Amino acid sequence: MYGYKIVDGKAVIDETEAEIITAIFNGYISGMSLRDAAEKAGKPMVHSMVKRIISNYCYIGDDFYPAIISRQTFSKANAELIRRSERHGSRKRLQPPPIHTEFLFSEPTKHYDDPIAQAEYIYSLIEVIK
């Protein structure tokens, strides 16, 4: 995930990339296009990649990822995405990602020495219910 690195099986903020993420959000909120916000932040990206960043809840923090941006900044940026998509008639294509609230977690039966492999294995045990 851009903006983070895995250290000892845990996500930690990559300060250099986090500055870029913050600058992308702030640039977009200030009125720049998705591509222009990324370019000004020093990380040119295609439109769809920037949109995925703006829409990704992990940047406000969760049980695994520490927060890079505030909920207020996230809400402003996503409200702007919706506003602009409605203005251009593309609202049907822009649906907010679902917020899952219930999960099943199978008991781990394997252990990997590689923390990334272990994390991938643990993630594979999670099943979304709702």
What does this structure look like?
The chain has 130 residues and is mostly helical. The protein folds into two domains: 4-93, Putative Large Serine Recombinase, Chain B, Domain 2 (Hect, E3 ligase catalytic domain fold, Alpha-Beta Complex); 100-130, no CATH class. It has five helices and four strands, in the order E-E-H-H-H-H-E-H-E. The strands form two sheets. The chain has a two-stranded antiparallel ribbon with strand order 1-2. A hairpin with a 2-residue loop joins strand 1 and strand 2. Helix 1 packs across helix 2. It is globular, with a radius of gyration of 17 Å. The chain starts with a strand and ends with a strand. The mean pLDDT is 90.
Structural key phrases:
130 residues; 4 strands; globular; 2 domains; two-stranded antiparallel sheet; two-stranded antiparallel ribbon; Hect, E3 ligase catalytic domain fold; 5 helices; mainly alpha
Write the layout of secondary structure elements.
Elements: E1 4-7, E2 10-13, H1 15-29, H2 34-40, H3 47-55, H4 71-87, E3 103-105, H5 115-124, E4 126-128
Antiparallel strand pairs: 1-2, 3-4
Helix pairs in contact: 1-2, 1-4
Mean pLDDT: 90
Order of the strands making up the biggest sheet = 1-2
CATH class placement of the largest domain: Alpha Beta
* Biggest sheet architecture: 2 strands, antiparallel
